[in-house]
Amino acid sequence: MNQPRGTLKKLINDPFKVVDEMLEAFASAHPDIVSLTAPRVVARAEKSGPKVALAIGGGSGHEPAMLGYVGYGMADVAAIGNIFAAPSPDIIHESIVQADNGKGVVLVYGNYSGDILNCRLAVQRAKADGIDVRTVFVSDDVASAGPAEIDKRRGIAGDIVVFKVTGAAAEAGMALDEVERIARKAVAQTRSMGVALTSAELPGVERPIFESGPDEMDVGMGAHGEPGISREPIRSADEVGRLLGEHILDDLACPAGSRTAVLVNGFGATPLLEQYLVYRAARATLVARGMTVERSYVGEFITTLQMAGASVTVTLLDDELASLLDAPVRTVRLVN
What is the CATH number of the domain that holds 273? Predict the structure, then answer.
C-alpha cells in the first residue's frame, strides 16, 4: 500500500494495521520470551508456577513499553491498545484472565483517564469471574499536577520502575497484599519530568502532534505529546539535566543522605550520547543535594514514537526496593 501523498514519511504498510502487524512480528521475533495469546494480548511464553500475576498495558507507540516488559521477573501479560490509546475493557479483561493462576492479579497502568475507565470496567468483570484483582495507577509526572493533586498526575517513565519491583515481588512468591504494597510504595517514592525538542508523528497523518520553533523546547511534556508547563529557549544538556533534577528533588523533598535510583529515558529520537549527557547533569544535581545514586539506567524505556527529548526519573530507595530492582529478570527490553 503506497502512503497517501502529503503524509509524513514512515516505514509502514496500512496505518490502520500497524499495531496488529507489529504485535505479530514482535511475538515471532521473540518466541522464547513472549507469545501472542489473544488479539492484542502478549503473555509470557513460559508460564510460571502458582504466584501473584502482574498485568500491565497501555497504548502502542511507546515501544519497548509495554510489551517489552513481559517475561520472567516482570509482567506476566500486557494488554495493547491502538496508538496512544488505552486497550479496550475486553482486551484488559482477557489479559487478566490470561495472567491469573489462582493467586490474584495486580494490574499496573499509567494514570490516564482512558486507562482508568477501561481498567475499572475490566476489573469488575474479572471480579465477577472470581479473580482477585488489585489496581495501581502510576502517577510520577511532577509537571502534570502539583503536590496536593498527586492523584491527577500522569504516569510516564516511572512506570518502568514500578513494573520492575512489582514483578520481582510477585516472582519472589509474595502474597497479593504484599505485591500490591510494593507497587504502591514504588509509586509513592518515584518522580519524573521531561523535556521535548520535537513532536511525535503519528502513522498516516500529515503533521506532527505539535510544532515548536527550531530554538525552542517544551518543558514537562506528557508521553503522548500533552502540553507541558512551559515553552522555553532550548538549553544545554547540563542545564536540562539540572532543571529536571531540581524539579524532581523539590517535589520529593528528600533529605540529604537519601539513597536513589536514576533513570534517564529517551523519547525515541534522542541519541544515547545526549541521554548520557542529561544523566551526567541530573546525577551531579542529586549529588550536590547530598543524595547517593545507587542504581542508574539510561536508554529508551518508554518512547513517544520518534519525539526528540528525554525525561529523568528518580526513585527513593531502601533495602527492599533496591533488592527488587536487582532481582533476576528476562524480558525483551531488560535482562538481568
Answer: 3.30.1180.20
Question: Mean pLDDT of all residues in the chain?
Answer: 95
Query: Would you say residue 160 lies in a domain?
Result: yes
User: Lowest-confidence range among 119-133, 215-229, 280-294?
Assistant: 215-229
- In DSSP terms, 176 is beta-bridged to none
What is the rounded CA–CA span in Å between residue 33 and residue 23?
A: 14
Return the closest-CA partner of residue 78 out of 121, 33, 112, 141: 33
For residues 52 and 172, what is the distance between their CA atoms, to the nearest angstrom? Answer: 9
Q: Whole-angstrom Cα distance, residue 107 to residue 109?
A: 7
Position 6 confidence tier, pLDDT thresholds 50, 70, 90: low
Calculate mean pLDDT across residues 18-22: 97
For 53-76, b/e burial (b = at least 16 CB within 10 A) is: bbbbbbbbbbbbbbbbbbbbbbbb
Nearest Cα neighbor of 142 from 230, 247, 52, 225 is 247
Q: Does residue 6 sit within a domain? A: no
Q: What is the largest CA-CA distance in the chain?
A: 58
Please return the burial class of 102, using the count of CB atoms within 10 Å of its CB with bins 0-12, 13-18 and 19+: exposed
Each residue's pLDDT tens digit, 288-322: 999 999 999 999 999 999 999 999 999 999 999 99
28 Cβ partners below 8 Å, 6+ apart? none
Same domain? For 37 and 183 the reply is: yes
**Residue positions annotated with a catalytic role:** 62, 224
**Lookup: cell for 78:** 500486557
User: Helix (H, G, I), strand (E, B), or coil: what is residue 24?
Assistant: helix
DSSP conformational letter for 154? P
For residues 140 and 149, give the distance between their C-alpha atoms in angstroms, rounded to a whole number. Answer: 12
Residue 245 parent element (H or E): helix 237-252
User: Can you give the residue range of the structural domain that contains 280?
Assistant: 190-322
Residue 49 clears pLDDT 90, i.e. is over it = no
